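Please decode residue identities from the backbone states below.
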């Protein structure tokens, strides 16, 4: 086994650990590790949309790590044309992902729904408290 192939195998072993967070995201777990997305969904619909967003983030993350992994491997194994082709594809993927996650209607809808359900639950609690306390007067 040549030195470059040995480096590629070792690097692939390291990249296995980088795929693990993406797998967690695909199962709807690990929402606290996504920057700017630290909230807990209190309602059922909020939890559903939370998982949808995490699954999309998981797909994005796994494809991103795969592109970076392929780019590095092709560079190590002496395939510069493939490496130079993968670099702009990776950059376009990152920009597209950032735009998608910031401008997606589904995500904006999920944020609105979560606010709505939080307000709805709060109003229900206020009404329940008023009913309980109305007999004390």
């Amino acid at each position: 086994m040549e030195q470059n192939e040995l480096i590629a195998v070792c690097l692939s072993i390291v990249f296995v650990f980088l795929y693990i967070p993406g797998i967690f995201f695909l199962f709807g777990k690990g929402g606290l590790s996504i920057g700017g997305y630290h909230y807990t969904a209190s309602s059922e619909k909020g939890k559903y949309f939370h998982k949808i967003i995490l699954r999309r983030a998981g797909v994005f993350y796994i494809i991103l790590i795969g592109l970076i992994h392929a780019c590095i491997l092709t560079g190590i194994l002496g395939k510069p044309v493939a490496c130079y082709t993968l670099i702009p594809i990776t950059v376009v993927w990152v920009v597209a992902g950032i735009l998608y996650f910031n401008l997606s209607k589904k995500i904006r809808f999920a944020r609105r729904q979560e606010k709505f359900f939080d307000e709805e639950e709060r109003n229900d609690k206020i009404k329940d408290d008023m009913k309980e306390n109305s007999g004390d007067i």
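Observation: The CA atoms of residues 7 and 39 lie 40 Å apart.
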